[in-house]
Specification:
This protein is of the alpha/beta class. It has 16 helices and six strands. A three-stranded mixed sheet has the order 1-2-3, with helices on one face. α3 packs across α6, α3 packs across α10 and α10 packs antiparallel against α11. The termini are far apart. About 2% of the residues have low confidence.
């Protein structure tokens, strides 16, 4: 028991933050950071353009750099602080500056994307900011908790920079500006929804921490005014929290559905008679999945087995649509065309392989026919001392019928003409020596 008490005291000392928090300093810091005037407006506009360039060229590093210099967190944390301390004046100022922040960001990104000559075929960084997930909610919530805790800490660190990157407020605003510039409401609405989700959960996190850390609340001289302000604050908190929590629950369901679909497709991708070559999740209420199947037409039993597999993966049978492409029946012509292409390709490859073989044989033959010409000349002179020089070349003979025949031509250079018997003797010897029956010998008499 004593050891447990010691562990409890040790653990309490480790997680205790009471002596390291200054709520008054944090309150002053947040109140001074909500304003968007002068340099702050220009810094925001510049950082938005930098982020827009990063999104336009799919550069994560540039986007992160823009988020580090953007002053977006101030008004959002100001709203959370105002709700937590019942400060109506701070709430109004924070909302006003939040609106200025959004309008400046949208205007800067709108102008950039309107004038930018670069149009990406696959703008992945932009597309990634059009559909919020439950992970965005968790990042915004815990990022907001870390942000207000860092702001309240006496000794400041680098947490705020990390929060600015993690919560990713800047890219959705830039993507919304892209949607406006390109008149694409899918990009605009999706990005604004993601920005709203991030902002709201940072507000909720700030509100929770101001209550937990017991920030000093605004005191009212009149109880009736206090009740009115608290009522307004409660209404605002409910208006912010309830739809956000509902959206978060909805996103959890959507993510689970997508995960179930991926698992179902992976398990049933291939069968003995065909395969699933694509699928598409259709938005709506309820969400449905279209499965595209290619191969021989499925029997009722096979289709029933596929539907049962979908049910086991959490996909209701009414939400599954199977679209079959029967290559065996419908696309006989296409199948024959493909078969013909494959057969022709195989025939072409066979011909090329044969030709390559012939060329390789010719190369080997030529390598094998490399002669030691000085040695050969000595042997010829030994058999026929009259020969002074000789030339050997590959050539051809053409007879009266113009028939061409390959041959090896040997020229024997002598001072006087050789007798026919001597020429015939040299020819027979060369045919044996070179293992070439096509050898033709000619005698060239006289000086060379």
């Amino acid at each position: 028991m004593a050891s447990f008490d010691q562990f409890r005291l040790w653990f309490k000392g480790v997680v205790n933050i009471g002596d390291q928090i200054d709520t008054e300093m944090a309150s002053r810091h947040i109140k001074t950071s909500i304003w968007f005037k002068g340099p702050n407006v220009w810094i925001l506009a510049f950082s938005v353009i930098i982020a827009s360039v990063g999104l336009n060229i799919n550069s994560t590093a540039v986007i992160i750099g823009a988020m580090l210099i953007s002053p977006l967190m101030g008004p959002i944390m100001g709203i959370g602080l105002a709700l937590g301390t019942n400060d109506m004046k701070l709430l109004k100022e924070s909302l006003r500056n939040f609106l200025v922040m959004v309008l400046v960001s949208l205007a800067a990104s709108f102008v950039y994307f309107l004038l930018s000559p670069l149009n990406l075929v696959n703008p992945t960084e932009l597309q990634a900011r059009t559909r919020p997930t439950i992970f965005d909610v968790l990042i915004a919530l815990f990022g907001g908790l870390a942000g207000i805790l860092e702001t309240s800490r006496k000794e400041k660190g680098t947490v705020i920079s990390g929060v600015a990157i993690a919560t990713a407020l800047m890219p959705p605003l830039c993507t919304a500006g892209f949607g406006l510039a390109k008149a694409d409401m899918r990009f605009f609405l999706g990005a604004i929804f993601l920005f709203a989700i991030n902002s709201i959960f940072i507000i909720i996190a700030t509100y929770v921490m101001t209550k937990y850390l017991r920030f000093k609340e605004v005191e009212f001289t009149e109880e009736s005014k206090a009740k009115k302000v608290r009522l307004i604050m409660t209404a605002v908190i409910l208006a912010v929290s309830v739809p956000s929590i509902w959206s978060a629950i909805k996103m959890v369901g959507e993510n689970n559905f997508e995960r179930n679909v991926q698992s179902f497709i992976h398990e049933n991708k291939n069968s003995s008679k065909g395969y699933i070559y694509d699928y598409k999740i259709l938005e709506g209420r309820p969400r449905r999945v279209e499965v595209y199947y290619a191969g021989n037409k499925m029997t009722e039993e096979e289709l029933g087995s596929l539907v049962e597999s979908a049910r086991l993966h959490g996909i209701d049978t009414s939400h599954l649509v199977v679209k079959e492409q029967d290559f065996g029946v419908v696309d006989k012509t296409a199948d024959n065309i493909l078969k013909g292409i494959y057969e022709r390709s195989e025939d072409e490859l066979a011909k090329k392989d044969a030709r390559i073989g012939e060329l390789e044989d010719a190369v080997l033959r030529l390598k094998g026919e490399s002669l030691d010409y000085p040695k050969l000349a000595k042997e010829v002179r030994f058999n026929c001392p009259e020969v002074k020089d000789l030339s050997i070349a590959k050539g051809a003979t053409v007879d009266d019928s113009l028939k061409v025949r390959d041959c090896t031509v040997v020229l024997l250079y002598t001072d006087k003409a050789l007798p026919a018997a001597s020429q015939d003797k040299v020819r027979q010897w060369l045919r044996l020596r070179l293992e070439d029956s096509t050898v033709v010998v000619h005698n060239v008499a006289g000086a060379r």
